[in-house]
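Students often ask why we bother encoding 3D structure as a string. The short answer is that it lets us treat folding as translation between two languages. Here is a chain of 758 residues written in the first language.
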Amino acid sequence: MKLTKILIASAIALTSFAATAANNSDKAKMDKFIDDLMGKMTLQEKLGQLNLPVTGEIVTGQAKSSDVASRIRQGQVGGLFNLKGVERIKDVQKIAVEESRLGIPLLFGMDVIHGYETVFPIPLALSCTWDMEAVELSARIAARECSADGINWTFSPMLDVCHDARWGRVSEGNGEDPYLGARIAEAMVRGYQGNLKNNDEILACVKHFALYGAPEAGRDYNTVDMSHWRMYNDYFPPYKAAIEAGAQSVMASFNIVDGIPATGNRWLLTDVLRNQWGFDGFVVSDYTGIFEMIAHGMGDLQQVGALALRAGLDMDMVSDAFVGTLEKSLKDGMVSQADIDTACRRILEAKYRLGLFDNPYKYCDTKRPAKEVFTAENRAEARRIARESFVLLKNEGNLLPLRKTGKIALVGPLANTRANMPGTWSVAAVSDKYSTLLEGFRAAVGSNAEVLYAKGCNLMYDAAREADATMFGREMRDSRSNEEMLREALDVAAKADVIVAALGESSEMSGESSSRTNLEMPDAQRDLLKALLATGKPVVLLHFAGRPTVLTWENENVPAILNVWFGGSETADAVPDVVFGDYAPCGKLTTSFPRTVGQCPMSYNEYNTGRPQAKWFTKFTTSYLDSPNEPLYPFGFGLSYTNFDYSDLTLDKSEMTETGTITATVTVTNNGNYDGVEVVQLYIRDLVGSVVRPVKELKDFSRISLRKGESRTVSFTINAEKLKFYNSQLEYVCEPGEFQVMVGPNSRDVKTKTFTLK
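And here it is in the second language, the structure alphabet:
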């Protein structure tokens, strides 16, 4: 036995040694190739590699025009973004490879945020699956589809932790928790990049580095200000996890960090990202990020361009600051040749790792799109994942699931729209290929039931505001009067046995530049919902949203609420799957839902104060006069059509050392009438620390499937790593003392035990 173990250990060691040797050999080959190439490059050709203009075809910022083809021929372009179609990309790549002096291939990027033509749920919704295999698969399919169409770089994953529902880009992130965000970061990077060997694996881009999800007042692009201690504990973990998973590019954020815009912040881009975390890829600015430092008050274009390069920014998106000013800055002594060469090398290394120097047309197989884009297999996975993302918030009297019989009134401005289903940041979506919710409902019930329809109202009463599609959605406004639409809806409701109301935000009411100060249901839709409830018929609210909204009135008055977010291209079929009980809802919130916008920002993992609240309101405690502190729906919350019972929590010991472990165990039983999926969540609280610690922190979770009547024992291993945090000196430590362990179905309803770390 000992000999066998020795032989196995020797084999593992030899394999590891061989892998290390191979990696060293590959790096040596890459270094020699790039050294030789850079030895041939002029200064302007090096600066060209740092330049990322937009084609103007798909606008995701303030559009800028340029003669891109001419600039490519002159070696003034390192990559392009937002060009769609493999044949067009191949033509442009051909210009770079065959018509420029050195034939350096281009990177082609796009905002492939939650799918390509097969669109998955918006990232916030995807996070509510708590299903890391599904998250990784969604990125894998997105990479497969966009790479088939010529794209080799995506500006995803977005890993900004956010505690403020007013900020529109909460829709593009993974919620309020750094631990869950880190696990999703790893899965997304694996899904996009794989090993970067095959032609269906692409570069991931971690964004927005850093802290973009914490703007003051929840207003996009606004000032961010926090301590380093808060950064490291609450906001940095997802970014760091993505880097450790091998992400090869990072996007700088728009906001300031320590008073300096992230785009020109050397502490952030060099000291933290490279020196502390070991990042070896390249950093790109966000759209016109360098140029926008002028408005921040950091100088003119030459000054901010030099500042960004010295800070460690390698590629300039759209601003033309590097190609336009760095030659002069070099002469003026504002930057060094080494600064330019380092940035150029990083871009060339990314192209080398993608295999573009071996095969510039690696991603230009014109036969792939027909076989790999928007396939039946991809759509089936998108449908499955979408229904996992829906969160059942209320189900009074078990109104849901509905039966596929009788007459069903489907009412609301989001019931018969095609373009809104994918949600924000679905720039490659082809809406004509997608079904409406009305079509999905009618297909689901077939001839067994009749689905009646009325729009009922527009998104809001203000026609001028809603008419702007960049703010409030597409194909939405109805020219009929409010009274006429409401009358039609009530006529339809009178004929029905049950009413399903499709209401909430439109696709563009969340996302970039979509901050809101009022998070309640828009006025026209609230009035419609009140009128439907007044009929006395049972009402199910299908709530569309790209953020946590305020549903306090709805929770008090509507018997059933299913939060469907924006489920992607397959929303129309996924929603009926859940509504009619073909699949039991299992989504769990990754953001706290406030009772009122006045509670924002808020999160479950808050820090205690010296005057904690004892009850709803107590004078001289941290509380509101007019509202409880607690959210309407807590982090981790989500109902099912079945019931899950939790046994008491047990620990296998009451003490541990830093090198030891404790096992926390709970038995979960499905005692309802449906098979279901439950997310069992582990939280820990450090009761005494050298710095103030959160009231609870998510440290692990287990997603389990249980048949009706089935029980399962779930165990979590607690080790020192789960107890560590950054202290006031930014040392990553665990400290001896007492800890609470909490396990439950959400962050509020938990079983608790205590142990001591010696």
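Translate back mentally: The chain has a mean pLDDT of 94. Keep this in mind for the problem set.
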